[in-house]
TrEMBL record:
SMART domains assigned to the protein according to its UniProt record, in alphabetical order: GGDEF, HAMP
Name of this protein: GGDEF domain-containing protein
GO cellular component: a single term: membrane
TM spans (from-to): 12-34, 344-364
Annotated GGDEF domain residues: 457-587
Organism: Veronia nyctiphanis
Biological process according to GO: signal transduction
Length: 587
């Protein structure tokens, strides 16, 4: 196949065809896999959100249940129930009109603040009892976020409420609000009062509370002798429910969790509907109907707004409540990364096709270019440019073999260069101390002299010689003498600046050059430092043989401008120091 096609065209054509086909298959596989992963991640996230909100909602109701059971058995509730009944019996008829006039009509506070009214000022027993217990009930309502709290006697008389709305002081068995959920809850408890047994109503509009959605939880109250004396009821608003359900963390832009009752109406507000959606918005979706049948799972269908969503659903039951809890996220948000991935894959595919095409046609130059590059490399190696990289040495063909041979040639050249540098270093540095020797010392001194002349700078040349060094070799041996020379070199290096210069002329003689001095006193201080540091450093090593340092100082340009003369003058000054007393410097 393709026998008559030139290999420069056939080879790229085959590579391009197979590469494009492979890229297409890989792209399709990646897209399908990403879609599955996104859906699985979305479902897992919805399940997690559903479980967390369900647990939080259950905890909310459980908290109210525990609190109601505790409060119903407290001394405050028992005594307040008995006291309010006594006060109720002492009120003049009509009792309802009397109390509503005192605590509603004549209440100086606005409707939302009527619970702040403590004393009606009529000097009645009821007002006295109200003043005694109302602060505790109001504090309970505020801290626990109950909308209201009620005390009802066994005859249906609503003896007390925190908020003083229109149901206050009415009779729940035969009064105006006998058909409300509050009255229904009272009748259920009152028919068969059982200590510790709680009852709960579903959310329904409650007219006395401006027709706002309300749920009631209540229980019977018994005195210390276990006699039934009335009912304690809490009215729960929707706001705490919304606080639980409308946590936006982890919900993204379109996610929400809400509760739906068996009547298909929302029991919590939607984050996407302005105003009140509880008991106003119907949710007749596949997820809700499945959950109402007691099932849990996920589905993809239209939500109550007609938008396609991923839904996780589960039933929610608590004390007779028969709700479902739904977690939704719009399908478009979940699949948005997939659409972006598709666009990226298309772009990458187009770029890949272009790259594959270029690579196919570049194969013809794959052999010639490395050969040209190696030819240039050989020219550069011939010019001793040993830092050049040989980039084709990993190839396994003939070009790679040539490159490996060139690597050997390069390695030999580098070794030869290192050997030359080592020999040059040995020629100009002392083998014992590593310090520059006489030839390098003079070269460096001439260089420093030229720099000082151009910059009008001052520097010092110091000629140093060890005192009594011969006694070390004679008494302790030449090995210890070598150690003393090495120690002296280290002391001199550590005592001067990094830019200063230390060299060894031979034997126990050293040269120190202090560059760029501000004044002569600086040179004297350094000379004194060198003498003292050497005496301290060699004292123990030389076993008190008196090995010290004599130092001669010459200053450029004060003493001379000649490098040779500066050495000679420093040498003469050193001998003067030895003749005087040793272990000192002289200028």
């Amino acid at each position: 196949m393709l026998e008559n096609v030139k290999i420069t065209k056939k080879f790229p054509f085959i590579i391009i065809s197979f590469a494009i086909t492979a890229s297409f298959l890989i792209g399709l596989t990646a897209y399908y896999f990403a879609a599955q992963q996104l859906e699985n991640a979305a479902i897992s996230k919805l399940y997690s959100l559903l479980d967390s909100r369900k647990s939080a909602l259950n905890a909310y109701f459980q908290m109210i249940e525990d609190d109601l059971r505790y409060q119903s058995q407290s001394i405050t509730i028992r005594s307040s129930m008995i006291d309010f009944q006594s006060a109720w019996r002492g009120l003049p008829e009509p009792k309802k009109e009397t109390l509503q006039t005192l605590y509603i009509d004549k209440n100086p506070f606005q409707s939302e603040q009527k619970s702040a009214y403590l004393d009606a000022g009529d000097d009645s027993l009821y007002t006295y009892i109200h003043t005694k217990y109302h602060p505790a009930f109001r504090h309970l309502s505020l801290t626990k976020k109950y909308y209201d709290a009620f005390l009802v006697d066994p005859f249906g008389n609503l003896l007390y409420s925190v908020r003083k709305e229109q149901d206050f002081a009415t009779n729940l068995l035969k009064g105006q609000w006998k058909d409300t959920k509050l009255a229904e809850l009272f009748r259920q408890i009152n028919r068969n009062p059982v200590q510790g047994e709680l009852r709960l109503t579903d959310f329904q509009p409650y007219l006395p509370s401006n027709n706002a959605p309300a749920s009631f939880m209540g229980t019977a109250v018994f005195d210390a002798l276990s006699n039934y004396i009335g009912v304690l009821i809490f009215q729960m608003p929707i706001e705490p429910m919304n606080d639980v359900m409308q946590v936006t963390a982890g919900m993204g832009e379109t996610g929400e969790v809400f509760v739906v009752g068996r009547d298909l109406l929302m029991r919590s507000d939607s984050r996407f509907i302005e105003g009140r959606s509880i008991l106003n918005t119907e949710v007749d979706t596949e997820a809700v109907n499945l959950a109402l049948r007691g099932l849990s799972g996920t589905s993809v269908s239209e939500d109550y707004r007609g938008i396609v969503v991923f839904s996780a659903y589960a039933p929610f039951n608590f004390m007779g409540l028969d709700w479902v809890i739904i977690a939704d996220t719009e399908k478009s948000e979940i699949l948005a990364p997939l659409r972006k991935l598709g666009q990226i894959l298309i772009a990458v595919g187009l770029v890949s096709c272009l790259v594959i095409f270029l690579i196919g046609y570049s194969l013809a130059s794959d052999i010639s270019n490395p050969i040209v590059a190696m030819t240039e490399t050989m020219h550069r190696l011939a010019r001793n440019e040993l830092n050049i990289n040989i980039n084709v040495s990993e190839r396994q063909d003939e070009v790679g073999t040539m490159a490996k041979a060139m690597e050997v040639f390069k390695a030999n050249a580098i070794e030869r260069d290192k050997l030359q540098k080592k020999l040059s270093h040995m020629a100009h540095h002392d083998m014992l101390t590593g310090l520059p020797t006489r030839h390098l010392i003079m070269d460096r001194l001439k260089q420093i002299t030229g720099e000082a002349e151009r910059g009008n700078k001052m520097f010092a040349v110091m000629f140093a010689d060890l005192d009594n060094f011969k006694s070390v070799n004679d008494s302790l041996g030449h090995h210890r003498g070598d150690e003393v020379i090495q120690a002296t070199a280290n002391i001199l290096l550590e005592s001067v600046r990094e830019d200063d210069f230390v060299g060894r002329l031979g034997g126990d003689e050293f040269i120190v050059i202090l560059k760029e001095l501000d004044n002569v006193e600086t040179a004297y201080r350094v000379a004194d430092k060198l003498v003292k540091a050497t005496a301290r450093g060699l004292e123990l090593m030389c076993h008190n043989l008196g090995v010290t340092l004599s130092l001669g100082v010459a200053i450029y340009p004060t003493d001379s401008r000649s490098a040779q003369d500066l050495i000679k003058m420093a040498d003469k000054s050193m001998y003067v120091a030895k003749q005087n007393a040793k272990n000192q410097y002289f200028h």
